[in-house]
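for the writeup, i need someone to sanity check this before i put it in the appendix. the sequnce is what the collaborator sent (i think, or maybe the updated version? ugh). structure was predicted straight from it, no edits. if anything looks off just tell me and ill rerun, i have time this weekend
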Amino acid sequence: MEITASRVTLLPSPLDIASSLPSLLPEVGVDKPTLLIVDDEEGPRQSLRIVFKNEYNVFVASNGTEALSIARAQHIDVAVLDILMSGMSGVEVLKHLKEHDQSIEVVMLTAYETLETARQALRHGASDYLNKPFDIPTMRAAVSRAVEKHRAAIGFKKNAGQLLELRTLLEEQQLKEEIERTRGEIYASVLHDINSPLTVIYGFIDLINRAMRDATRVEGAELESMKDDLRSLNGQVGRCFEISRRYLRFLNREAVESSTSSVLQTLKDLRELLVRHPAAAGHTLLVHEPQAEITTRVNGTDFLQILLNLTINALQSSNTPHTVEVRAFLLEVPIDPSRFVDSPTERFINRSGFVSTPPLVGLVVSDTGPGISPENFQRVFSEQFTTKTPDQGTGLGLSIVKRLVQAVNGSIHLKSELGKGTKFTVFLPAS
């Protein structure tokens, strides 16, 4: 069965929504997810109710005001919203629903898709959006995905063991799977990139579980600390989704939209993420904030991933306590790659692809570790090369940094001497 913006099949007898809101409330099943359908057209609204009535506790509303009244009266797991409605728009309803209950997942419907409406929907937390007309299997799949995402979000807060199991499965799959080379490299990169936020997520949940285990009441500073942890946790879950979307766009050969990110905010995020990271235990991490705001023309997730991979690599360079420093600076003059001469202790990456047009952002990640041995110096950016034990590294971190930097026409200067530590300097386009 196909639903269009102007014609539907299997129409039931119309209900008088405006005069009888209580009559729209179904008999709620204990084990069924709860679905709210909001559309100012009677046909699509009632047809979707029929489609989902056997699997969900379905509520319907003809406008945003009714939808919000239902959401305040009943627990809603997933909502299906038409973007273009008289009165309150679907995007406005989405915003209010998220303010009421952040865990509600929302699927947006539109017959007049624009890039801006898609951006607004995703910015306010939409799970998915579909174009009218759509077929029923597609709609069922979208709602099913939204339900699973809702359950996963709840599960993140309640079950740290599931996250640990997921992390273990990802690591095992990363090490064991043999797949076709091009896509295999992308899949391995996804697993590596997601592993970092999963590590942080697990750490935050473990802290929350410990705080709640013996507490009869949480308030004051402890409550504020827990709220901060939950905000960080939510940000890391968002990073997982963004990383997944980024690689899906790459696999589907979709153009990646250019964006910018704040160097100052990213360095703050880096410090917050690594405070509880196992790699930082026993070592000194110094993250120096720039004196003035600097903006780089690099996707925020990619920029943070570059910093995370370099910093974690530096922290793991030795089990002996050592210091890792991270700093950023702005360059107003071009860099001449010819002044960097490759030698047994220095390398310049992406010499031919580097666009040295100012302004540029310089990122320095240095450590006082043991340095890189001569036999390994030329191999550090090779995929799957690592000197770490299997439980510490996969050999993908620096190869991912190299790929992300080359993608924005940046460059990397590496200098390392035995007994004197290692220094990575990354040059990226500034805004």
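Residues 181-213 form the longest helix (33 residues). Residues 1-29 have pLDDT under 50 and may be disordered.
thx in advance!!
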